[in-house]
Amino acid sequence: MGNTSFSNSRGFDLLNDVDPADWPAEHYLRNNIAYGNNNDLHNVGSEPIDDEDNSWHLRGLNASDFLSLSRDGVDGPRGPDGSLPVLDFLRLAPGSSAIDRGADVGSPFNGMAPDLGAFESGMPGDFNADGVVDASDFTVWRDNLGAVFSQSDFDVWVANYGLTTEAPGASHTVPEPAALGLVAIAALAPVRGRSRTTGVSRAA
């Protein structure tokens, strides 16, 4: 779940090496991107597959959906925690058709739904994905409380109120909920908190 395969001979190879005694061992694919591979899905049909909300279900995914397809810097030093270098490589561009097109699998996400691929775009609390965390995001949260958002998402909105893509360090006063016409209420939906397995696959 949440992987990006780019410029490989095989994007996702579904050859199953699970002992038949342990079957059914169905392939479960969600929120993945396969782009620029010789074959995005290999060995399809040889094993059970449950694949929804992946890039191969979209029409017209192209280079403009990404900030960059340049590999420059990918072999740079990792962060102190072992994380990958922070680059534009394979991150989704604003307006990408892969933004908010994934399935909610219990992992944190920005916007109305998870993005496809290894990297989540946007900012925490920017529920309408307009590049600023402001009162309009409160309206989106309020209107979708219980169906998409929970009380914890309100807390994220408060913590990030005033942030913009142009000035990520800015801080602003959060308006009182009463001023927005609603007092925050208890969550009606469970908190999304499971860890997200992500990765970028690139042939050597």
TrEMBL record:
Matching InterPro entries: EF_Hand_1_Ca_BS (IPR018247), Pectin_lyas_fold (IPR012334), Pectin_lyase_fold/virulence (IPR011050)
Gene: pelL_1
Keyword Lyase: yes
SUPFAM superfamilies reported in the protein's UniProt record: Pectin lyase-like (SSF51126)
Protein name from the UniProt record: Probable pectate lyase C
Record keyword Lyase present: yes
Highest taxon listed in the record's lineage: Bacteria
GO terms for MF: lyase activity
Alphabetized UniProt keyword annotations: Lyase
